[in-house]
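help with this record:
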Amino acid sequence: MIPSVLAQHVRQGVEDFLRTTFPVSTPFFNGLIENLLKENGGIFKGPYLSIQLPFRQGKKGSDFFPKIPFNFTPFLHQEKAFERLSGMKPRSTIVATGTGSGKTECFLYPILEHCHRHRGEEGIKAVVIYPMNALATDQAGRIAKIIWNNEHLRGHVTAGLYVGQSEREPCRVMSSDSIITNKDTMRLQPPDILLTNYKMLDYLLVRAKDFPLWKRNGPETLRFLVVDELHTFDGAQGTDLACLLRRLKARLRTPQEFVCCVGTSATLGGEAEQDSLLDYAGKIFGESFEESATINELRLSAGEFLERSLISRIDIVPEDEKDKLDPESYDGYREYIRAQHKLWLGAEIPEEDFEKDEWRVDLCEKLRSHLFFRTSSRCLVGVLVAMMIFLVNWKKSRPDFRMLSPSIKQIF
C-alpha cells in the first residue's frame, strides 16, 4: 500500500460520488461542482505526512520491576508512567503518547506488579475497558504471553476477557497464548485482571448471573481502572461511561480517591490542552487528576538523532531519472520500494530478501549517513524515519517543500 496512491484513489472515489449525487442541470450553476473539486483546498487538504523522531530511551534499564523484567528497554515516558503507577500508592495518570509508543506497557506492568504483590487474594484488582472487542482480544494475547513467560506470574496472576462474542472453545485456564475467556469460569473464580468493553461492563453490573463476578471484591480490592483510547468516549458515549464508572465504584463500595484511574490516547495531550484534558478525565472517572498527571511523549531532537552518523552519501536522483520517483508507475509497493532503494542507495534488495528484517535495519543507518536525509531532517518539522515514506510524496509536493526553507531549495 503506497499512501499517495491510496489517497488519490480515495479522492477520486469522493469526486465521482459528488458528481453522481449532485448533477448540475441549471445553466447558471454549470461547472460549479467541477470548479470546487479542482480548487486547491476547496474540499480536499493533504494528504498529510506525519513524521516523528524516535522516542527517548529510559535510564533505569529493563529491571524497573525486579519480579517482572522486561525484554525491552523502556522509553523515558514509560518510566515516568511506571513511577506514577507503581508502589503502594499509585496515582491517577493520563498517558497521552503517540501510536507505537507502548501505552499498554505503561499501565500493564504496574498492574501486574500490584497483582503479584497481592497474589492469593481473591477478587478483581484491575478493570481495563477497551472501545472495541478486536482491540481487547489483541491485547489479551500480549498479556497472556507476558504472564506465561514469567515464573513469578504464571500460576499466581490471572487475566480474563469478558466480551459479548463467544468462542467455540473458550479457555478455562491461562495458557501461553490466551487468557481466560470462559464466562462460567470467571464467575466461579474471578480473574485478577478483567478486560472488557463498556457495554459489557454495564451488563456485568445488572445481570443476576454475573453477580458472582463481584462477590469477592471488598471496598479496596479494585485498585486500577483503565480506559484505553479515552478520546473515543465523547459526547453521549462519554456521559454513559462516566455514569457507568460511578456505578461500578458504588457497587463495590470503593472509597473516593482510592482507585488509580488511567486513561490512554494517541490523539489527546497537546501541551496547550493540558488543563482541559485533566478536567475531561476527571469528569469521566469521577476522580481528581493533579497537574502533573499527564505523561507526554519525549523524543530525540534531530541533532541528537544524527550526531553519531557521518555523511557517506551525497548523491540525489539525476534529473533524467525523476520519472522513477512516481509511485503510480509501479505495479505494487514492493517494486516501488526496491526501485527507490536502488535509486538512492545504489543497491538492489533481492526479491527473496524483501520480507527479511536485515535490510530494513540496515536502511536506517544508510539513511542517517545520507546528506539529503540529514538536511531534510533538520529543515522539516520532525524527521523522516524512513526515506521511502518521504519519497511517496516527492513528485507532487516539490513546490510545497521548496517553500519551507532556503536549505531545501539548495537540494532541489
